[in-house]
UniProtKB/TrEMBL annotation:
<keyword id="KW-0326">Glycosidase</keyword>
<comment type="similarity">
    <text>Belongs to the glycosyl hydrolase 17 family.</text>
</comment>
<keyword id="KW-1015">Disulfide bond</keyword>
<dbReference type="InterPro" id="IPR044965">
    <property type="entry name" value="Glyco_hydro_17_plant"/>
</dbReference>
<dbReference type="GO" id="GO:0042973">
    <property type="term" value="F:glucan endo-1,3-beta-D-glucosidase activity"/>
</dbReference>
<keyword id="KW-0378">Hydrolase</keyword>
<dbReference type="GO" id="GO:0006952">
    <property type="term" value="P:defense response"/>
</dbReference>
<feature type="signal peptide">
    <location>
        <begin position="1"/>
        <end position="24"/>
    </location>
</feature>
<dbReference type="GO" id="GO:0005975">
    <property type="term" value="P:carbohydrate metabolic process"/>
</dbReference>
<dbReference type="Pfam" id="PF00332">
    <property type="entry name" value="Glyco_hydro_17"/>
</dbReference>
<protein>
    <recommendedName>
        <fullName>glucan endo-1,3-beta-D-glucosidase</fullName>
        <ecNumber>3.2.1.39</ecNumber>
    </recommendedName>
</protein>
<dbReference type="InterPro" id="IPR000490">
    <property type="entry name" value="Glyco_hydro_17"/>
</dbReference>
<dbReference type="InterPro" id="IPR017853">
    <property type="entry name" value="GH"/>
</dbReference>
<keyword id="KW-0611">Plant defense</keyword>
<keyword id="KW-0732">Signal</keyword>
Length: 357
């Protein structure tokens, strides 16, 4: 023992010096879904996120007043949602004014609400009536905000990638016929004029095949070459963003900002889903957070940053469907991490599953 001590000592010292440096901290947004009966009260969640994590923005699937209240003075930015079922009403200005009076004015600006999203994945669901009212609702809410002199809350709506007719190669991305000029041209014009982002929910998890698993997980792979642009894609996330960008650019709106409203990978699945496991969830979300914080951008949008919201903050035990649906969370209901992706403030969590990037 005594003989080895002088050798051991310097290496231990090195370890202590390196540890805080190797604990990278990234900022990220999370979707705060609440389809569960075991979640901590919003005030506890707000304090936890503020004090223990580097999460600096959340997205709600509703405009829950208890949550909006709990996040006052936390400096955490909040995207609130108007429900799909409210869209028809909200297309009329008086209803939009009441909605703003009920769900925004009482909380703003102590609660840092910075965006309202109208519905979720409406366009690709192809309900003609809702699609005809969606932009009207967005415009009414924007006008209602102006009427109460609120000028720093954006209005947008998140889309699934089902809005695209083609996405491969990324340079050939285009919106579905019938959606492009009728829905997306006027919507993108509104977003451009109001300096608001186009929002998408890209999920490589729902798009990979066994042979493209590494490509979906941002792991080393041969890449996918787009011969039209001579760009090589090393991950599916970039390819999805660039396909959307190509579709937007085709309509003349390549400069509108893109926000990733949802993306993620479940950590538990059914026994016949070998690609659903903790390791792949850590790999996808960890590499995602690193990638979107890097400032590298994508092959067609170099150096652009994409505000990104991981799905989801919590495992939600009341979600119907496959096991995976209840296991997209970064945290359990007792606030312990399911796994860490470099977003804990107090350095590394004592969990052997901590990600080594
Ligand atoms: C609030 O957050 C913003 C980033 O969203 C940051 O620039 C600012 O310094 C923060 N303010 C406080 C008081 O922490
Ligand atoms: C909005 O601002 C204008 C100009 O400063 C002011 O006349 C008006 O009363 C304000 N409206 C509200 C609802 O605060």
């Amino acid at each position: 023992m005594t003989n080895s001590a002088p050798i051991l000592f310097p290496s231990l010292l090195l370890l202590f010096i390196l540890l805080p440096i190797s604990t990278s901290e990234y900022t990220i947004g999370v979707n705060y879904g609440t389809v569960a009966d075991n979640l901590p009260p919003p005030s506890q969640v707000a304090q936890f996120l503020k004090l223990k994590t580097t999460i600096d923005r959340i997205k709600l699937f509703d405009a829950n007043p208890d949550i909006l209240n709990a996040f006052s003075n936390t400096n955490i930015s909040i995207t609130v949602s108007a429900l799909n079922s409210d869209i028809l009403q909200l297309s009329k200005l008086p209803a939009a004014q009441s909605w703003i009076a009920n769900y925004i004015v009482p909380f703003y600006p102590q609660t840092k609400i910075n965006r309202i999203v109208v519905g979720n994945e409406i366009v690709a669901a192809s309900d003609k009536n809702l699609n005809a009212h969606l932009l009207l609702a967005m415009k009414s809410l924007h006008t209602a905000l102006q009427l109460v002199n609120i000028t720093d809350i954006q209005v947008s709506t998140p889309h699934s990638l089902g809005i695209l007719a083609s996405s491969e190669p990324p340079s050939q991305g285009r919106f579905r016929r019938g959606f492009d000029r009728a829905i997306f041209s006027p919507m993108l014009k509104f977003l451009q004029e109001t300096k608001s982002p186009f929002m998408i929910n890209p999920y490589p998890y729902f798009g990979f095949l066994p042979k493209t698993l590494n490509y979906a997980l941002f792991k080393p792979n041969l890449g996918v070459y787009d011969r039209r642009t001579k760009k090589t894609y090393t991950n599916m996330f970039d390819a999805m963003l660039d396909a959307v960008h190509s579709a937007m650019k085709r309509l003349g709106y390549g400069d509108v900002e893109i926000v990733v409203a949802e993306t993620g990978w479940p950590s538990v699945g059914e026994s016949n889903q070998p690609e659903v496991n903790l390791e792949n969830a850590v790999t996808y979300n960890g590499n995602l957070v690193k990638h979107v914080n890097s400032g590298i951008g994508t092959p067609l949008m170099p150096k652009r940053k994409f505000e990104t919201f991981v799905f989801s903050l919590f495992d939600e035990n009341l979600k119907p469907g496959l096991t995976e649906e209840r296991n997209f969370g970064l945290f359990r209901s007792d606030l312990s991490p399911v796994y860490d992706i470099g977003i804990m403030r107090d350095g590394r969590v004592s969990d052997e599953r901590t990600l080594e990037l």
